[in-house]
Amino acid sequence: MSRYAGYESGTILSRYIVLLFLVVFVLSFSVYTIKSCKLVRIYLIWFVIIAIVAVIVQALFKNRSMVSELRTFLMVFGSIMIGYNLKADNKKIATILLVFSVTTLFSGLMQVLVNNGGFRIANQYITDSKNSLGAMLATACFSFFYLSRFWKKSLFKTIAIALAFLTLVVIVTIRARMAFVALALIVMYYYYLIKRNRNILISVIIVSLVVFFGALLIPNSIIDYLDASFTAGTQGEDFTSGRLVVYSQAIEILMQSPLLGNVQRFYQIGWVHNYPLLKLYSFGLLFSWPILALYLTILINVIKRTLHLPASGSVCFGYVCLLIPFIISMGEPTFPFGPGTVTLFNFILLGCSEKGRLSSVVSAV
Hints:
0% strand, mainly alpha, 15 helices
């Protein structure tokens, strides 16, 4: 959609997307899932605790910020359950993965062609919801990359690699810098998982040499293109578009009032673009702990699952893919649980992984 085509609360499709999600959630809801899936049970317990704390915060301080987030937490819970109860084999899940990636890339291309007018960087915020779109594009790019490793036909491998590269170009064009960083880290982490310590030092040396000598051969036009994406046109006093200044202000306020933070809204410093720090600053240690506990519970569970999987090409995609919104949460205020439905697909893949799917896509594609 072109810029300003949607409503302030989202595009014209937002209400139908939420309605469709609720229908799928109702159809997939199962009490047996809550009993059989440990992660679902833990998530549900933390959700109830967060809801109780949110009501207390609103009652004591007339602050309904945490209450307004309950819908987001509930939708994430629904996504995990949808993925866990998805009645599909690996071949169908791989097809869903491919469809998601292609449609997300199409959306990114339309943003570039309609709003930017081409693959050029004219204005930092000319793309609607660029950071949200960037996170989905990072998931799509990693999906193309992942599928390209296992496609048997060379033609399909080439197409998947080309689509991954095109998606990467779109990410750079719309200036989704945290999405680019998350994608780069995830690819390196994925290679570590499938190689572990075998020749890891040699791999790092080879990649470093390729990057170094490759940079000498890159045309100046591409250098300027990348420079404009990551260093030019930023708002604020530094490379982080002023985020570091807000971080320091939030930490200073938190040090003054560690228990309550800014729950009474005495301070106005803008939105803290770091999810854990934002919760600490907004609600203090006294009220932010259940949200941070849920955040860390999922993150630690995912990392443990990836590290305990066999070191092979069939390393579970869903667990690794969920790390993308967690990495982005270090530079954005609503990730990994939002905004809106942006990260729900990642949590659906998490549910599939908890069920034991997506661990052997090799035979599926």
